[in-house]
Amino acid sequence: MLTAATAIEEIRKILEQEKTFSEWPAWVADSNPREGRLSFVTGIATGGVSFPGFRIRGSAPQGVVGRDVVLQVEALLGSRRWLHISRIEYKPLGGHLNPFSRRDVPRQIPPGVSHVHGFEDNAVLGLDAFSPTSNLPIARILDPSPTSLRGFLRSAGTMLAIPDFEHIDSPPWQGRLPV
Question: Number of structural domains, the chain?
């Protein structure tokens, strides 16, 4: 279990290791049909040993094909507080606004531009940057920008050291293909 005193260093060590899924991700429709999202949650492991308190969450809109796919690594701090430690977004429907204090990242990332909320960029802000309400405040545009969902999953696998991402199924979308 992570503690506030050691969380950033322990998370960093786990993120640097090559990992796999502890269970293969399976997309399911959320229980709230008004949300209209597909999602999966699975643990991570290395060498056949699971990391307790770490998980991967994926989500995508059910009716918008090929857009707004989100992959997020989460870690449990203490016994009840989930931290959002890294997030990668593929062609998001909304944009992102970086803090004024960071001059090494664009101030605004427009909708539709794939980007990553990396662990190291946000770790410099301290543990509060990983709370769900802080929304991982710093993001960078993915370069090169993935041109397909499969390319996005391949990039996510590389960035998160989880090569299995390349082989997961696409979300079972319902809706029209984007033009």
Answer: 1
Contacts by residues 97-106 (CB-CB < 8 Å, ≥ 24 positions apart): 98/137, 98/138, 98/139, 99/137, 99/138, 102/138, 105/138, 105/139, 105/140, 106/141
Q: Is 154 buried (19+), middle (13-18) or exposed (0-12) by CB count in 10 A? A: middle
- Kindly give the parts of the chain with pLDDT less than 50: 176-179
Helix (H, G, I), strand (E, B) or coil at 68: coil
The rounded distance, in Å, linking the Cα atoms of 135 and 49 is 29
Task: Give the structural domain span for 131.
Answer: 7-167
> Encoding tokens for residue 54?
């770490």
pTM check: above 0.85:
yes
> Which tokens hold the place of 69?
């796919």
Q: From 34, 94, 31, select the one nearest 63 (Cα to Cα).
A: 34
SS3 9: helix
